Amino acid sequence: MRVRILEIVRCAKLLELNVTDDNVIACMVAAVMCPGHENNLGTILAAIYINQSWGLIQALKTTKEYRLLHIQVSDALLDTLTQKKPPQYCQ
After folding, report:
1. Whole-prediction pTM value?
2. Segments in 15-63 forming alpha helices (H)
3. Which end of the chain is more exposed for a tag (fewer CB within 10 A), N or C?
4. How far apart, in whole angstroms, are the C-alpha atoms of residue 37 and residue 31?
5. How many Cα atoms occupy the beta-carbon half-sphere of 37 within 13 Å?
6. Residue 65 exposed, middle or buried by CB count within 10 Å (0-12, 13-18, 19+)
7. pLDDT tens profile 22-81
């Protein structure tokens, strides 16, 4: 993990990103969290920086909390599809 972090810092500086900005740091973290991009962290960082919501969602999907909530939400959706009652509105 340390190697990926050092590489993402290097890439951010090469891309001349403002590494003191919290959004840039969040993009860097998201890039480090994205699996399978060991050889192109700079490319994935640039893509995440351009489209921050996509990158942050991809990083979120790698977390245990996301996977657990995803199962619960999917189950709730399935329950509503199998029931004949109309959906209730959020309050």
Report:
1. 0.74
2. 22-33, 41-50, 52-60
3. C
4. 8
5. 23
6. exposed
7. 999 999 999 999 877 678 899 999 999 999 999 989 999 999 999 999 999 888 888 888
Close Cβ partners of 45 (under 8 Å, ≥ 6 residues apart): 8, 11, 12, 15, 17, 27, 28, 31
Is residue 40 within 8 Å of residue 14, measured between CB atoms?
no
Unique residue bearing structure tokens 């190697």: 3
d(CA 91, CA 82): 23
CB 17 within 8 A of CB 49: yes
- The structure tokens listed for 1 are 């993990």
- Give the tokens for residue 80: 């509503």
- The per-residue pLDDT for 78 is 87
Q: Which residue has the tokens 């951010």?
A: 12
